[in-house]
Amino acid sequence: MAILPILQYPDERLHKVAKKVENVDGSIRKLVKDMAETMYTAPGIGLAATQVDRHIRLIVIDVSETHDDLRVFINPELLKTEGKEEHEEGCLSVPGIYEKINRAERVTVRALDENGKEFTLDAEGLLAVCIQHEMDHLLGKVFVEYLSHLKQTRIRAKLKKHRREIL
Ligand code: K1U
Ligand code: ZN
Q1: Measured in whole angstroms, how far is the alpha carbon of residue 44 from the centre of its chain?
Q2: Shortest CA distance to 101 belongs to which of 154, 45, 147?
Q3: What is the pLDDT of residues 4-45, one digit of tens each?
Q4: Which listed residue (77, 99, 134, 165) is catalytic?
Q5: pTM over 0.70
Q6: Closest approach atom of ligand 1 to CA 129
Q7: 155 closest CA partner among 7, 52, 9
């Protein structure tokens, strides 16, 4: 397994639109393992392939505290969304920034697992929020883009300052 570098906002590659996975083969299963290790090490509760500069429709999520409930979504599709709720979100590509974002309260998603088997999942709470956040990454959208231009400018300045300080 390997820990992969995570693209940092405002890297242009975070805005690429991911392509469908045509074949769930060994190379996809290896990427799933590497992404899971990268997510657990960060630490985070989700990771989209886009964030590790692989522009294919693949997401890993584990919202458990015990790191033993890994969920893999290949070619995910949102079938249904219900309700609205505001939830605080973070992002491994935008470190140190946490903001409240409006999302659907419940979602139904259809996807393939790491063996290429189709499944449908009804999700709510943090899992539903995380699925929406990660599916946005696959469309090239970073959560801060839901915020005002003023907030986005402030966030970019804060990240720039922080990166200057740690280099
Ligand atoms: O996409 C990402 O960058 C991962 C992101 C997912 C996410 C978090 C919160 C709401 C929506 C989506 C993160 O994992 S940020 C880190 C984080 O939230 C966390 C880290 C350690 C323990 C618990 C949470
Ligand atoms: Zn993110």
Answers
A1: 9
A2: 147
A3: 999 999 999 999 999 999 999 999 999 999 999 999 999 999
A4: 134
A5: yes
A6: 11
A7: 9
Tokens of 53: 């500069």
Q: Is the CB of 43 under 6 A from ligand 1?
A: yes
Kindly list the distances between the CA atom of residue 37 and the CA atoms of 4, 5, 93, 128, in Å, as whole numbers in the listed order: 9, 11, 16, 22
Which amino acid is present at 33?
A: K
- 3-class state of residue 66 by DSSP: coil
CB 39 less than 6 A from any atom of ligand 1 = no
Q: What is the pLDDT of residues 75-98, one digit of tens each?
A: 999 999 999 999 999 999 999 999
Lookup: tokens for 119: 């499944």
For residue 134, indicate whether it is catalytic. yes
Helix ranges (H only) for 105-147 are 125-138
For residue 9, give the nearest of 94, 72, 98, 68 by alpha carbon.
Answer: 94
Burial class of residue 149 (count of CB atoms within 10 Å of its CB; 0-12, 13-18, 19+): exposed
Domains of the chain, each with CATH number or no CATH: 12-166 (3.90.45.10)
One-letter identity of residue 138: L
